[in-house]
Amino acid sequence: MSKYDVREIRRLYDRGENIVSWIKAQENAANPSSTAILYSYDAQAGTYISHVETSDGRELRERIGERLGAILSEIAPLSLLEAGVGEATSLAPVLRHIRSKPRHVLGFDLSLSRLLFAREYLRRNETPDVELFTGDLERIPLASASVDAVVTIHAVEPNGGREEAILSELLRVAGRYLVLIEPSYEFASAEARARMERLGYVRALPETLTRLGYEPRKVERWPHNSNPLNEAALIVVEKTTATSESQPQFVSPLSGGSLARRPDCWFCAEDGHAFPIISGIPCLTTDNAVLASKLNAL
Q: Helix or strand or coil: residue 141?
């Protein structure tokens, strides 16, 4: 992953520059990279909570929580993962509205900064029992079919060109259901489509799921959008596999090997890499990996 001077990123952000577009230009890339997305969301950390604290933001998140909570109540998952949880401003109201809380609730994001805000927000909303960790949508550090229901809310959004890889990975981890609330190029107006093209947003998610062998059981307009030029669709995929009742297990994003908990890291004996725990949050992306193949020998 390329590294950028965060002071410059902050100056650009304060001037209203689009960080993803700026890094795309630096990288001469057609589509946004994980690096661009990480720096963009790190710069925004804390702003989602600030928005929710306004009356309009709070009302929108409550409507999202109520609707998605009702959908998940019908599914009744034993375990739940929000991929791209951000600052947990959607997850907290979902957990308030779901009828039967899952035994295990997890959330990951590329940005550690956002997860630190998420943890505090969950505490303030009396929903602290969520396992937070850094992770990448293309290399989710969880065992296959280990989470009953996987949810995304505008997390796949900025990853245009990587739709198939990301959806494949989400489907790998999901035991029974994948629930997506993501921008819909198909439902969008001409103006909204032009915006999505300019920003490198995803497209054709239902068609991609079908191509992967998973015909969505539901595709419909999502009624709760913060931006009329970013209209979303609700997409629900039901899998035939049945997840176990055991706790979801972390795996190495490098090899898929099992991880063992140590006081200051998670360690994979198979590939010899350690993944640090920072401020209590496991950091489980490939860029977080530290080669330490002899760690268990000491």
A: coil
Instruction: Report, as ranges of residue numbers, the positions in the chain whose pLDDT lies below 70.
Output: 1, 241-246
Q: At what angle do helices 19-27 and 34-44 cross, to 10 degrees?
A: 150
Using N-to-C axis directions, what is the helix angle for 112-124 and 34-44, rounded to 10°?
40
Q: What's the topology of domain 54-238?
A: Rossmann fold (3.40.50)
**pLDDT tens column, 239-269:** 976 665 668 999 999 999 999 999 999 999 9
One-letter amino acid at 185 equals Y
Segment holding 9, helix H or strand E: helix 6-14
- Between the two ends of the chain, the Cα-to-Cα distance in Å is 31
**pTM (2 decimals)?**
0.92
Burial class (CB in 10 A: 0-12, 13-18, 19+), 72: buried
Q: Three-class SS of residue 175?
A: strand
Q: What residues form DSSP beta bridges with 250?
A: 142
Separation of alpha carbons 241 and 189, rounded Å = 37
Percent of the chain whose pLDDT exceeds 90: 79
CB 276 within 8 A of CB 262: no
For CATH 3.40.50.150, the residue range(s) in the chain are 54-238
